Amino acid sequence: MKINRLRRILSLALCLGALLMLIGCWDRREINDVAFVLAGGADKEGDLIRISVLIPLTGNMGTANSGGGGGSGGQKPYTIKTETGKTVSEAVSKLQYRLPRHLFFGHRRVIIIGEELARTEGIDLVIDAITRTPEKRFSTFIAVSEGRALDLLEADTRLERFSAESMREQLQSETSTHINLMEIISKLVTVGQDAYFPYLQKVKTEIKGQESEDIRSESFVLFHDGRMTGKLERDAALGFRLLNQSIRNYDETVIVDGSYLTVTISHASTSITPIVKNNELTYRIHSSVKVSVNEDRNLARNYDDPEQRNRIERNIARHVADNINLAIHKMQQSNSDAIGFGLHVYRAYPHIWNTKYRKDWNEIFPTLKFEVTGEANLFRFGMSSENLGRKDR
After folding, report:
1. CB atoms within 10 A of CB 50
2. Which candidate, 107, 259, 315, 342, has a CA 20 to 30 Å from the CA of 333?
3. How far apart are CA 307 and CA 310, in angstroms?
């Protein structure tokens, strides 16, 4: 009898234990109750912060034959919701009160900060709010928009179903650099280095009365003490990419011997060397690139002549050095050490950095002198033997 009673007690205890293990889904949330945020934007509106989110609408995605950019019956496959608040968190809370579904930020691909907010309030308040969110993704791309971030989310891109996808593709393309949440946090806490962001612009095109919008990412914005202080565009942006060691293949058109020549620049390697001599800090920068010819307007150019090849290499090397000098000048004007020249001094001369430069780096950086040199190696002419466009005379 005692053995049977003991067996019943053990069986009951095992059943209760199994039941306790099965009730772990008390806080579950069905997928139909969730609104997945693909992109978010933050703008300044008076004294308030405007937060905008892009949410896909699975019911409007339709099939491949449906119109309106993939939406069923021409309807957009997404919706944009926006709200204002005194803080970022208050705006998100007010936005949540209006929605029947729970906002989920775990799949957010890009975060866009409006230019006015970046210049006046800075990025610290946005980053602070994001990092306190349990659903944050450190791989989320971050960029600054020309004008309002909300306008960029509303861009009517035709190649991609969502503007968020178009922005993500741009931010990981060869014309930009990969700046995500993890990298920005690292730059904000590193002494001797300022933050920078890709600069997104909405470009309108119209062909035969049909208007479409594209998103372009070719420039960068510079920050100092958490606020936007300047921009790097065109040649200055190319020089910055060389300095930042984030260069991928890009095309340049130069004039050599009076004719246009388009080349692809690749395999760039740039060295930055701080030098302390006679109690004065200077930098020596050298950039080496490989060059291949894409098109030459001078069909009579003889690539078998070493002197003509050397002239092309010298021209490209001078152009590379000029771009780097332009980027440095823009950074000094904006007082933004986005490359981390101060960090290079700390690594090479840690004692001198801590005792002489660290405290007054904001005043020292704009006055520094740089010696920039370039080197180009023409390794591909773009033809198998003779120039096919040149006629025999």
Report:
1. 21
2. 315
3. 5
By the 10 Å C-beta count (0-12 exposed, 13-18 middle, 19+ buried), 238 is classed as: buried
**15 three-class SS:** helix
Residues 6+ apart with CB under 8 A from 46: none
- What predicted TM-score, i.e. pTM, was given to this entire model? 0.80
The H-assigned helical ranges of the chain are 2-21, 88-98, 115-120, 124-131, 149-153, 163-171, 181-189, 235-243, 306-334, 341-348, 350-352, 361-364
Do residues 50 and 42 touch, judged by C-beta distance below 8 A? yes
What are the pLDDT digits (tens) for 25-68?
545 556 666 778 888 889 998 899 999 988 888 665 554 444 44
Listed in sequence order, the residues at least 6 apart from 245 whose beta carbon sits closer than 8 Å to its beta carbon are 268, 269, 270
Q: What is the rounded CA–CA span in Å between residue 28 and residue 110?
A: 27
Return the SS3 of 319.
Answer: helix
What the block records as the tokens of 376 is: 């180009």
* Sign of the C-alpha dihedral computed for residues 176, 178, 179 and 185 taken in this order: negative
Q: Which phi and psi angles does 383 have, rounded to 5°? A: -150, 155
Cβ-in-10-Å burial (0-12, 13-18, 19+) of 141 comes to buried
Cite the DSSP H helix spans in 209-305: 235-243
* Helix/strand/coil percent split, the chain, to 5: 35, 35, 30
Q: Rg of the chain's alpha carbons, rounded to an integer?
A: 28
Over the range 100-125, which residues count as b (16 or more CB within 10 Å of their CB) and which as e? Answer: eeebbbeebbbbbbbbbbbeebbbeb
